[in-house]
Amino acid sequence: MTIKENIFENLRLELRRGCLTLAVLAQLRQEHYGYTLRKALAERGLEIDESTLYPLLRRLEAQGLLSSEWREEDKRNKRFYRLSGDGEGIFVQLLKEWRAINASIDNIL
Amino acid sequence: MDLLDRYLQAVKKHLPWQRQDDIIAELKANLEAQLEDKEAALGHPLTAAEAEDWLKQLGHPIQVAARYQPQRSMIGPALFPFYLYVLKVAFLWATVIWTIVAVVQIAAQTPSELTVLAAVLRVPGMLMTTAAWVTLIFAIIEFVAARCPGKFPMLAPPAAHWTPGDLPPLGQQLSGGRKPRSFAHALTEVIFGFLFLVWWLLVPRHPYLLIGPGVLYWHASPFQLAPFSVLFYWWVVGVNVVQLAWRSADLIRGSWPRPRTAQTIVVSAIGLIPLGLLLSVPDHAYVLLRNPALDQARYSAALTSINLSIQWSAVILCAISVLELLWGIGRLSLDRYRKYAAAMR
């Protein structure tokens, strides 16, 4: 990877980081377990690594934005996540912020 | 799948023990579901090579496990710039204090190449110890601030409680329209001041550092330095230690861009003392004969000529220093007058 490519990759990751959290919170308005959440995001055009998504779910849960429960499905125990009450409030605020940033960028461009 | 179990086992090893079973159970369920989808899409169980490629794509077990840990840093980004600043200041102070102690120690012994070399070789260890202490203190501050946010306001990064009114006035830095001294310039002065001091301390033991091969002629000559030279030598050491300490303090306080008129005046004034000593030597006898009884007749004219040339050198040096002192006093007076005139307008 050249220095320019490396700089671009770092900036791209930085740009994506906040958006991923927003996308995960949005998608978890419906209940999902890790793998189906990843598939659902990919189907909507947002590919996300397992090693990024699964720890992110844990962090968001630890912050109280998600609630989770272990449940059996297809003869396998899975941990299902969904947006918590606090998470919904934060999600609405973040969405508003994201739309404002988008509108500003559009104006600048 | 054996390879997946081995992968999960490797990840588990690097997870916090309180949560490792829970995390591994969840990761296993997710990866097994993904594996089933992959095999269904391929229409056959994954071959060993395909399984290896897939797991490699997931990432190294240590990296995967690390992502489940909270982001940890010994000194966080809010505190880090202050840590770097304090570290630089601590390095400069440690170097100044160490230099003074080393000069005193070397002076107490007989200055030699080995004692100076030993003192210089102790510098890296001293700097590492300084860095270790500063890092430890900041790591403790970071730890306490992260664990008990808001409980110890005095431990908050200084960025939280600074006031713009505390910033130094702009006028002081460019008084008299002179160009401010750069950091590189100020640092170079300190480094060269230090090197000069080391060199000067080595001269008595190794005079060839001062007069080169001429030392052979000196040893073979019938001349020797008068006893006053010891006093003169230590005055030169003293003047340079004062100058080095002052310049280092400027660096530490961040005041190197300011004009150094007062400092120049004081150093020039102190510098006049050894020159005054030189000029007050009785009969200007700087150099004496080792065996006056034997050599007086033969070397009397040469001795007079040597002492006369030293005397004139001292007179010229003294004149230059006096001019420098007067120049400094003049500049300081002019600066004061300009400030006074500006205040009266």
Any overview of this molecule?
The complex is a heterodimer of chains A (109) and B (345). By secondary structure, chain A is of the alpha+beta class. Chain A has a single domain (3-108), classed as Arc Repressor Mutant, subunit A. Chain A has 4 helices and 3 strands, in the order H-E-H-H-E-E-H. In chain A, a hairpin with a 2-residue loop joins strand 2 (66-73) and strand 3. The two termini of chain A are 29 Å apart. The mean pLDDT of chain A is 92. Chain B has 345 residues and is an all-alpha fold. Helix content of chain B is 71%, strand content 2%. In chain B, strands 1-2 form a two-stranded antiparallel sheet. The radius of gyration of chain B is 34 Å and the shape is elongated. In chain B, 15% of the residues are buried. Chains A and B meet through helix 2, helix 3 and strand 3 of A and helix 2 of B.
**Order of helical and strand elements of chain B:** HHHHHHHHHEHHEH
Q: How many helical stretches of chain B? A: 12
Can you identify the CATH class of chain A?
Mainly Alpha
Helix content of chain B: over 70%
Q: Number of folding domains of chain A?
A: 1
State the helix count of chain A.
4
Order of strands side by side in the largest beta sheet of chain B? 1-2
The whole-angstrom Rg of chain B is 34 Å
